Amino acid sequence: MDKTTIGPSTHLFPKPAVLVGAMVAGKANFMAVSWCGIASQTPPHISVAIRKIRHTLKGIAEHGVFSVNVPSLAQAAQVDYCGLYSGRERDKSEVFAVFFGGLDQAPLAVECPVNFECRVKDSLDLGSHILVVGEIIQTHVDQDCLTEGKPDVMKIDPLGYASGSMTYHGVGPVAAKAYSVGKES
Ligand SMILES: Cc1cc2nc3c(=O)[nH]c(=O)nc-3n(C[C@H](O)[C@H](O)[C@H](O)COP(=O)(O)O)c2cc1C
Fold first, then answer.
1. pLDDT tens digit string along 62-89?
2. SS3 of 64, please?
3. Could you state, in order of their start, the residue ranges of all structural domains in the chain?
4. Rounded CA gap, 21 and 30, in Å?
5. Which atom of ligand 1 is nearest to the CA of 35?
6. Ligand 1 center to residue 11 CA distance, Å?
7. What's the 160 CA to ligand 1 centre distance in angstroms?
8. Closest C-alpha among 133, 85, 140, 150 to residue 109
9. What is the position in ligand 1's atom list of the atom closest to the CA of 30?
């Protein structure tokens, strides 16, 4: 076994590349976020780790709501743009067409095939980042990304991000059937 220690790190793979949306000073603002994960099922919760300086965090703190938008590979350039530039210096309100669901201060990106509307449940100061936990109030899915009524990962074609190489990735082919292949070993 040849391993090298690389110190405490954040190199967990795969990471999603999503867009977190909030209303800041009356404008829709989206930021790229890869530190995002589902946190509970009933009721459903999601967590996003956001550096304290982010413009988006201001809107989340002010309104107590936000959105998580899952882009497909086709939106890689727009996601990167929202990760390169802050709403403090550039108006990002027209990068995506915006719609609203039940939470009127949680802007949703039309071009992203999956959108979650979230209400802040709690937040945890972890140092550089605030871990915001949101209850998922509603999920919007493009109809052509469903198979038998369920979101289909191959149709959504979600964008992934790899730290280290700092590259975007797509979803590969099916490797095995979950909750199943283990029964054979
Ligand atoms: C692929 C990618 C992933 C990112 N993930 C995060 C993240 O998880 N948390 C974070 O605070 N910033 C993250 N960023 C940086 C922010 O998206 C970036 O600083 C952005 O300009 C913030 O926008 P805002 O100031 O308008 O909120 C990421 C950037 C990229 C390109």
1. 999 999 999 999 999 999 999 999 999 9
2. coil
3. 15-184
4. 4
5. 8
6. 16
7. 14
8. 140
9. 26
Q: Looking at the domain 15-184, which fold is it?
A: Pnp Oxidase; Chain A (2.30.110)
Residue 160 CA to residue 170 CA, distance in Å, equals 6
Measured distance CA(132)–CA(60) in Å, rounded: 9
50 lines ligand 1 (CB under 6 A): yes
pLDDT tens across 58-67, in order?
A: 999 999 999 9
The residue among 56, 9, 52, 13 whose CA lies nearest residue 32 is 56
